[in-house]
Amino acid sequence: MENKLDATELCKKMQVGNEQSLILPAPSFIMMQCDIIDYQETEKSIVVKIPILKEWVNPYNTMQGGLIEAAIDNAVGPLSLLSAPVNITRSIETKFIKSVTLEMQHIYVHAQLCEQRKKRLTFEVSVQNKDGEVFTKSKVINFII
User: Fold this and answer.
1) Which domain holds residue 92?
2) Rounded Cα–Cα distance for residues 62 and 53 (Å)
3) Position 18 pLDDT exceeds 60
4) Under 8 Å CB-to-CB from 115, ≥6 apart: which residues?
5) Is residue 52 in some structural domain?
């Protein structure tokens, strides 16, 4: 059985400094029904489980690519604030390998901070099914503000 970590408790660890205007967890994280099921502080990695809803499919009955990227952003977002001072997404470069279908029920977004150079953060991300099969890979660049 998967563990579900308390996102609100993890938010208390985020390096937000005096940024009182931040809403944590993000409304998009809640809207997409994201659950953090693993966070490794020393490896700077996170796994977020997200349901696949019928409202999110395209005409081919597969998960719409923009929503897959939103799922990726919703995994990198918390990890970025757990790993570095306040930062924002600069770019997401995504390679769609296989279609994400409703039958999968959930996707698992695995994100890891691979490099930090000055104000630039580089994350490697994969979208997987419950068996670890990779459906999408991304490289996400964030900038510390």
Assistant:
1) 7-144
2) 10
3) no
4) 121, 122
5) yes
Q: Which two tokens stand for residue 45?
A: 């990695």
Q: List C-alpha distances in Å: 9 to 1, 33, 54, 114.
A: 21, 17, 30, 24
| Structure confidence by residue, pLDDT tens digits, 77-129 | 999 999 999 999 999 999 999 999 999 999 999 999 999 999 999 999 999 99
Residue 64 lies in a domain: yes
pTM for this model (two decimals): 0.91
Question: What DSSP string runs through 32-82?
Answer: TT-EEEEEETTTTEEEEEEE--GGGB-TTSBB-HHHHHHHHHHHHHHHHHH
User: Is residue 62 in some structural domain?
Assistant: yes
CB count, 10 Å around CB of 72? 26
Q: Domain of 121: which CATH number?
A: 3.10.129.10
* Residue 15 confidence (pLDDT) above 70: no
Nearest to 107 by CA among 77, 65, 60: 65
